[in-house]
Each structure stands twice: as C-alpha cells, then as structure tokens.
C-alpha cells in the first residue's frame, strides 16, 4: 500500500472518529450572567470553578454599570439567567413595578468606595484622610468617576463628596472639586435631612480634569496607564489590581450605615424621566450587592444552581479570596424565592 493510500485511510479514520465524538458529546447550556463591573474579577474565577464542576454548562459573564445590568432585561428585553448588581436597592426599583421582571433579591456581599491611585500619581506622597478632597481639586490633578446615570459607583461617588462636606465641616468641597467640570452643572437641593443632587439629562465632562466612564472598572486602564491620577473605586477592585487605595472615613465611604451619624444624608435624583415607570432616584444605603433571576430566564434550574454556588458554595470562598467580603444571604421576599434557595436563607 503506497503512502497516498495510507494518508487517505488516516483522513477517513479521523473524520469518522471526529463524527462519533461530535455526535456523542454532551450538549452545552450557555448560562448568561450579567453583573456589575466590580464583580468581574471574582466572576472570572467563579466561572472557571463552576464550569469545572459542571462541564455541560458554559457560563457567559458580562459586565456593566449596575443600572445598565438591570436595563439589559427591563428596557432592552434581553434574555439573561442571573443579574447581580452593586446596589441591591436597584432591583426592586427597576425590576418590580407594574410589569415586573422579578419579585425577589438576595443580598450576598458588601464593599466600600475609596480612592485608588498609583505610587507616582500627582501628590500621592501628600495624600491623607485630611486633604484628599483638596488634592482632587488641584488644577493639575486628573481623576475619574463612573457615570451616575448608569452605575452605582457613580452616584455613590457624588453622595460621598456631599457627605464629606458634613463630615469635614467644609461647605465648599463639592463645588471646589467639580466646579466647571461638567457641561451642565449638578443642581444641589439642601433640606434639613439630606442633600438631593439633581443630575441633568445631558451630563458630560467639560474636557477638563475629570474623566467619566459607564462603569468604575472602565477607569482602570486610564489609571494604570497614567491617563488619570486618581479614581473612585471599590476596595476589592483596587486590591485585586494591586493599586494603592485610600480608605475613606466610615461615615462617608458607604461601606456601612455610619453615614447616619451625620446631620444629613444624600440622594441622587435624575432630573429627567430616565426610566418609564419609576422615580429615577438613588438613596444613600450601605454598599450591599444583590442578585436575582428574571422571570424569563431561559435556564431557570441552572440559574438557581449557579446562585446556590455563589451564596453558599465555593463561589462564596472565591469572593473572599478576591477581596470581596461576603455576608450571610438575606432576601426581601422569602416566599417568592425558588424553593432550593429558601433552604439557604433564614426566613427572618
């Protein structure tokens, strides 16, 4: 038998074996998980661990600002199996209502905002808890924040700047840092109990010291490459990417409810009807992450199993290993939970 005949037989054998493998391989289910950008680093590791235990599942992770996460389903009518956001209060705000897309959430992790920077950032050697806002206001300092219309870190950053005026007893902090930095200024309404920040519909930076992105993690490349000196980031993101991190006082970092010790709280209100059927405003709450499974999740059983993995399985350990503090899961609607999840949560 000559060489060409042997080659032909080998090719035929390869085709036959490949066809048998293709015909007998297990079907793969794609599980779509849309999450807040600050969860992406942890979710990459969770995806790898979960797929190792479930070879028939292909977990597809997609990140956005928290408001945009929910809009993928509520406004854009996309199919998704699990939604996870950095502000649990967004879920009832945007997913319940007259035409609901879900009717429960589970709280599963906490965090806090602070200031991420590089060792060579401008004035990094001077930065302290007593002067960080003065440094951010300097003409030769560039910093970044995420867009409050799309991302929880964005509206929390504005709340922090306003709460800082109360904490440091300096009524010009917000004005000094943000003056002339937006094409349309933020209007601030002061009441005896809170500051209400009105965000205009056209909200863009003026090309000055501030860079704004749709999600806080989108600021990382700017910070790492020297495009900006500082960025408001979550602590887990800063630690994971080995950035310097200035932890702010607990009364203003929105990591706990210590802000209630101040005379006023804060809320951010969009000065236009951003959403069809809800009041577009975001209230100062401690930073607690929430997740839900939409009513129209294409793979509900698999989604439930994935949520179990996150809140009570190996996923919880992975969150801790990637610097995101977890918490015992809590829900707002125990009776609405899928039965397997009820077993993991105290009815309260």
What secondary-structure arrangement, pairings included, does this model have?
Blueprint lengths: L2 H22 L4 E8 L3 H14 L3 E8 L1 H9 L7 E4 L4 H6 L10 E5 L2 E5 L14 H5 L6 E4 L5 H17 L4 H6 L8 E4 L3 E6 L10 E4 L6 H5 L5 E5 H6 L3 E4 L17 E6 L10 E3 L4 E5 L7 H13 L1 H8 L4 E6 L7 H4 L6
Helix pairs in contact: 2-11, 10-11
Question: Over the alpha carbons, how many angstroms does the gyration radius reach?
Answer: 24 Å
* N to C succession of SSEs: HEHEHEHEEHEHHEEEHEHEEEEHHEH
Shape: globular
State the helix count. Answer: 12
CATH architecture of the largest domain: 3-Layer(aba) Sandwich
Q: CATH homologous superfamily of the largest domain - what is it?
A: Periplasmic binding protein-like II
């Amino acid at each position: 038998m000559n060489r060409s005949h042997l080659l032909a037989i080998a090719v035929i054998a390869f085709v036959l074996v490949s066809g048998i493998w293709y015909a007998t391989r297990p079907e793969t289910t794609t599980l779509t998980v849309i999450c807040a950008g600050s969860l992406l680093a942890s979710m990459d590791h969770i995806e790898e661990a979960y797929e190792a235990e479930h070879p028939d599942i292909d977990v597809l992770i997609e990140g956005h600002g928290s408001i945009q996460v929910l809009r993928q389903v509520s406004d854009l009518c996309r199919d998704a199996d699990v939604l996870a956001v950095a502000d649990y209060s967004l879920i009832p705000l945007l997913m319940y209502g007259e035409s609901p897309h879900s009717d429960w959430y589970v709280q599963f992790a906490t965090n806090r905002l602070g200031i991420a920077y590089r060792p060579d950032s401008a004035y990094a050697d001077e930065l302290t808890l007593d002067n960080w806002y003065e440094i951010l206001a300097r003409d030769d300092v560039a910093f970044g924040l995420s867009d409050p219309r799309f991302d929880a870190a964005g509206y929390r950053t504005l709340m922090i700047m306003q709460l800082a005026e109360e904490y440091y007893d300096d009524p010009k902090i917000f004005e000094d840092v943000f003056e002339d930095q937006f094409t349309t200024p933020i209007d601030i309404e002061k009441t005896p109990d809170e500051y209400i920040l009105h965000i205009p519909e056209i909200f863009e930076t003026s090309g000055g010291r501030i860079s704004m992105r749709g999600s806080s993690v989108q600021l990382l490349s700017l910070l790492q490459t020297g495009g900006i000196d500082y960025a408001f980031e979550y602590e887990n993101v800063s630690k994971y990417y080995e950035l310097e991190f200035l932890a702010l006082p607990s009364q203003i970092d929105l990591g706990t409810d210590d802000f209630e010790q101040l005379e006023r709280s804060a809320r951010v209100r969009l000065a236009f009807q951003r959403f069809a059927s809800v009041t577009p405003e975001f209230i100062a709450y401690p930073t607690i992450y929430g997740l839900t499974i939409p009513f129209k999740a294409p793979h509900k059983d698999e989604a439930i199993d994935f949520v179990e993995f996150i809140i009570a399985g190996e996923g919880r350990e992975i969150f801790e290993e990637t610097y995101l503090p977890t918490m015992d899961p809590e829900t707002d609607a125990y009776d609405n939970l899928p039965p397997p999840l009820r077993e993991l949560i105290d009815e309260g």
